[in-house]
Amino acid sequence: GTNSAPPRGSRVGALRQWALLSRRGTALLLHSRLSVAVLTGSPVMIVAMFAVLFRAGAFDPASPDPGSTAMIMFWIAFGAFFFGLTYGLLQICTELPVLRREWLAGLRIGPYLASKLTTMLPVLAVADALLLLVLRAVDRLPPAGWDTYGSLFVTSVLASAAALALGLLASAAVSEPGQATLMLPLLCFPQVLFSGAFVPVPRMTGAGQAVSWAMTNRWAFEA
C-alpha cells in the first residue's frame, strides 16, 4: 500500500541517493540541447556585452577611467550572479512530476539539493573562469598577479553559488518553466538597483539600505 513505499525507498542511504542523482543530473545536463544552449549562451552574451560596451585599456594608469573600471567590476559581479540564477531557475520546476513520484518512494530533499549543487557548481566555476580569462585576453581587465585574479575568481564563484541557491528556491516555488522565466527580471532588477553601483548605499533611503543588505550582488561588487 501507500504506507510501504517510503520505508522501501528509505533503505537507500543519503550518500547513495546523492551519488545516483548527481550522475543522472550530469547525464541529463549533457544530453539536453536547451541546457547546453543556456550554459554556453550566457557567458558568450556577457563577454560580448563587455566587448561592445567598454573600450580596451580602461585600467591603464596613464589614462585612468574610474567610471568604466567601476562598471566593469559591477558587471563581472552581475555576470556571475546571472550565470547562477539562469542555471538554477529551470532545475526543479522542470522535474516536479518525477520529483513527486520519487518523494513518495523515499527520496530525501537533502541529497536532491546536494546533487544540484554538485552538478552545477563546477559548471559555474568554469563559466566564471572563462569570463575572467576572456576579459583579460581582450584587455578589459588589467595585468595582475594570481592573488588578484584568484580573489576575483573566488568572489565570482561565491556570487554564482548564492545566485544558484536563489534560482533553485524560485524554481521550487513555481509549478512550470514559464513561471520560472517570468521570475528572471523580478530577481535581477533588485540586484542591479540596490548593489550600490549606481546609487551609493549611503545615499539610499533607510528602506533601500535595508534591502541592499539582502542583495548578494552588493557584496560581490564591494568585494
SSE blueprint and pairings:
Elements: H1 5-10, H2 14-31, H3 33-53, H4 66-89, H5 96-104, H6 109-137, H7 146-173, H8 177-193, H9 206-213, H10 216-222
Helix pairs in contact: 2-6, 3-4, 3-6, 4-6, 4-7, 4-8, 4-10, 6-7, 7-10
Radius of gyration: 20 Å
Identify low-pLDDT runs. Answer: 1-10
Percent helix: over 70%
Structural class: mainly alpha
How many H/I helices?
Answer: 10
Order of helices and strands: HHHHHHHHHH
Sheet of most strands: none
**Which of globular, elongated, flat, extended, rod-shaped describes the shape?**
globular
Number of domains: 1
Beta-strand content estimate: under 5%
**Distance separating the two termini:** 55 Å
Mean pLDDT reading: 88
Number of DSSP strand runs = 0
Please give a structural write-up.
The chain has 223 residues and is mainly alpha-helical. The protein has one domain. Helix content is 75%, strand content 0%. The protein contains ten helices and no strands. Helix 4 packs across helix 7, helix 4 runs antiparallel to helix 8 and helix 7 runs antiparallel to helix 10. The longest helix is centred in the middle third of the chain and has 29 residues. The N and C termini lie far apart (55 Å). The N terminus is likely disordered.
Task: State the gist of this model.
This protein has 223 residues and is an all-alpha fold. 75% of the residues lie in helices and 0% in strands.
List keywords for this structure.
single chain; 75% helix; disordered N terminus; mainly alpha; 223 residues
